[in-house]
Amino acid sequence: MDTGRSERTGTKDFRIVTKERIEGTAQRWRRFGEPVPAGGSVKEDGTPDYGIFGPGSMVWQVLLHPATIVFQYAFQGLMQSTYKPVIAGVRDHDPLSRNTRKGTVTIFDLFERGQRNSGMHAPMWLGDTETARRMAKHLHTIHKKVAGDVIDVGAPELGGYAASEPRDAMWAALTEMHSMLWLYENFAFRDGLPPHRLSRAQREQYIAETAAYCRLVGAPEEEIPTSMAELDRLYAKYDDLFGTSKSMAIYPDNGQSFPMQMFGTMKKNFHRSQLPALFYAGVLDHGLFRQLAAGASSGRLRKSLGMGRARSAVAVATLKISLPFIWMMQRGRFERHYMRLMWGPDGVTLIEAARALQKTAGRS
């Protein structure tokens, strides 16, 4: 989902992208001051405040793995691209859309939108309770504006969307958490083995733990899943809201194509200084990384993406031959680079503090 305003400061010409703009300062991700890491404060009873998950949790085991740090945004973006209300919200209200209509959108906007995603979620996943609540409240306030009467002009029976309301808030949270589980099982080299599936008990524990996050964002209590079976039933219940269609891209008010206008304007506003942003956003996050994520996904998800048998087979084959590259990207300096780039300075602090706690708890 949209996580706030797009950054357009630091240069007189909005097209020029400096190294400093690519890296960003803490302010790109930070809201309400420096976040307090889980365990960095105490509850009223004097015990450590570990936030909504904490050390020893399956969520932290999945989230803190280097593979998740590098590929989290690509997997989340791919899964959320099949949930129609999310795409409708981006089309109608995202800074990408607003800047497209103004004629000022650049590839840096696409990069910076993805860059803010992981780092602005980190305080909810890795901060103490008050830090998590403050960020959740901030995002809820922003998302109040992300609402509309039309999800898809080609399917008016779907009705409208409202990012801050219980249904869409729940699915934003579930697609974030489910995509990380799917990422971990398919990309995380661990225990001296190639990527492999968690045990049934571990998967059940993971889904049960995500309920705390769903509650934090305002999901309807009666629908929050606490097991894989309940999550599967929820997907079946809301099946009509998943998938893709050509008409999803059409602005309801003028009948124009959002992506065609956006990429056309990006081309017009291109400047050679934008090449690093093009590499990260276009070549990796929205390109190779998403292709690899598609290959790791279920047949149901690939069908939702509109992929036929041939494209699905290519995606799966690409994943298999890319495992050495995936292994390399979760090693040492590659992971550290992506951690700072995509999670920000505060995110690095939160991750490192949580990893220390998780190590003490006996999980990595």
TrEMBL record:
ER-bound oxygenase mpaB/mpaB'/Rubber oxygenase catalytic domain location: 60-310
Designated name of the protein: ER-bound oxygenase mpaB/mpaB'/Rubber oxygenase catalytic domain-containing protein
Coiled-coil stretches: none
Alphabetized GO MF terms: oxidoreductase activity
Signal sequence, start to end: none
Superkingdom of source: Bacteria
Pfam families named in the record: MPAB_Lcp_cat
Organism of derivation: Nonomuraea solani
Lineage of source species: Bacteria, Bacillati, Actinomycetota, Actinomycetes, Streptosporangiales
InterPro entries: MPAB/Lcp_cat_dom (IPR018713)
